[in-house]
Model the fold of this input.
Amino acid sequence: MAARSAGILLYRLEGEGGVRVLLAHMGGPYWASKDAGAWSIPKGEYDIDAEGALDAARREFREELGVDPPDAEYAELGTFAYSSGKKIVVFVADGAEFDPAADDLEFGEFDMEWPPRSGKTARFPEVDRIEWCTPDEARERLVKGQRPALDRLLAHLAEL
Done:
């Protein structure tokens, strides 16, 4: 079975019809010098038999950013498939009260062999920075498999 992930796409409304979404730049040496296609919503894998998707999305937000997701009303935006077959369930919430500058962010970490084939293990942050982006910025920065979630969010907000 293909891997399952769950994540939270926070948005905030600004000015007259302006929207910003919260994206996380993926950490580690592979992504360090990349911008286009190197950002993601805070998300991670979960076992659908052991945990609900929203619970997993909240847990992963906390693990990746080191802070709890906002206490807000969450809506399931949909499930999106990557070209690899992996699926991600995306939840959205108004993140107007979420201020990354004010919060004490402590990014989660992972271990990997680095440099490649060296036999040495190095520790890297899962995320190395987060940023509020316009939809146009987000469309260029997001990994390809998550871009449909951005389009669905904009359609969702237009219906409100």
About this structure: The first strand starts at residue 4 and ends at 14.
